Amino acid sequence: MDPLITAAARALSAGDPLAALKGIALRDDPPALALRGIAMAQLGDLRRARELLRSAARTFGPKEPVAHARCAVAEAEIALVSRDLGRSLQTLKKARAVLEASGDQKNAAHAGYLEARYLLLIGRLDEAEEVLDEFDPGVLPPASLIGRELVVAGIAIRRVRAEPARTALQRARRGAEDARIPALAREVDQAVRAFRAPAARLVAGQVERLLYLEEVERLPASNTLIVDACRNVVRLGTAAIASIGNTPMEALNSTVTEGGGGYVIPGLWDSHVHVFSSPAEPATAFPLYVLNGVTGIRDMGGLLPLVEIERIAATVEAHEMTGPRIILSGAWVDASPGSWPGMFLADSPEQARSVVRRIEGEGWVAVKSYSMLHEDVYRALASEAEALGLPLVGHIPESVSLPIAINAGHDVVEHFGRITKACSTEEAVMIGRVGQALAGADPRSAMIEEMAGHNKIVLETWDEGLCESLLVSMAEANVRVVPTLVVADFYTGKRPADLQERMAALPETVRQNWSLPDFRLSAMTDELRALADESIALDVLTFQMAHAAGVKMLAGSDASFANPFIFHGFSLLDELDRYVASGLTPREALYSATIAPAEFLGLTDESGRVHEGMRADLVIVANDPLEDLRTLRRPVAVVVNGQVFDADGLEKLRDQLPD
Question: Is 3-196 a domain of CATH 1.25.40.10?
Answer without folding.
Answer: yes
